Amino acid sequence: MIQQKARVLWNRRISNDYYKLGLSCGGYETAAPGQFVMVQIQGQNAPLLRRPFSIHALLAPENSEAGIEILYKIVGSGTRRLSEVREDQTMDLLGPLGNSFLLPPPGPRIFLVGGGIGVPPLVFLAKALRSNGIDMSRCHMFLGGRSRADLLCRETFLDIGMQLHITTDDGSDGAQCLITDPVEQAAADMSPDIIYACGPLPMLACLVGISRAKSIRCQVSIEAMMACGIGACLGCAVSKAGNADGYWHVCKDGPVFEADQVDI
Ligand code: FES
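^ thats the input. predicted complex w/ FE2/S2 (inorganic) cluster below
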């Protein structure tokens, strides 16, 4: 974990309220899919608290400067302020933080399930799976959003060679249903070896239920409110599964958990 001043390489609007932020920073060469950073805007009127963002991509030094890319959505005043940050400004960056998805050995049938702004770390994961020699034609990406405008990175998943399944809440693209509906159907038809997921808590809770019912290994990356990101404020607690007493801290023990570790 490194705290540093990171220089903004770009902060581009990619659609509606979605932006990609490129940061020049060191120490991320071994960062892994699922890990996150805490970002704080510098300057007057900047929000006091750092904000957590999952790592969307590692920047290759041969193409740009070493660093990371974050994909975020404007959801409030803090992220709106973030969208106004300009190239060459500096930001306070803490990371890489948290654990990561555990990659399987080559061969298995894999489901990735992403809802809304939970999709960005799954792009990092899909690229890591491909780099690890996984046959991506056996990998299925289940991509859900409120509407077509909220379906992130679909072209990237297709370029990686994954089979894509789309749902939207309003029916503007793909099937009009919850993304967990086609996952449940496909899990029955194809018996995946592992499910990786990131998205809203109800989606993750449903997937945990599906994975337990069908005895499929499942890793979920949980999004939580985070004030510190390092286990100091106890603000990101999630209940341990079963009869285990106590809580996990998403920032320190996660954000990635096996489905049988958490009660969500
Ligand atoms: Fe402070 Fe997790 S964010 S303990």
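The CA atoms of residues 21 and 127 lie 19 Å apart.
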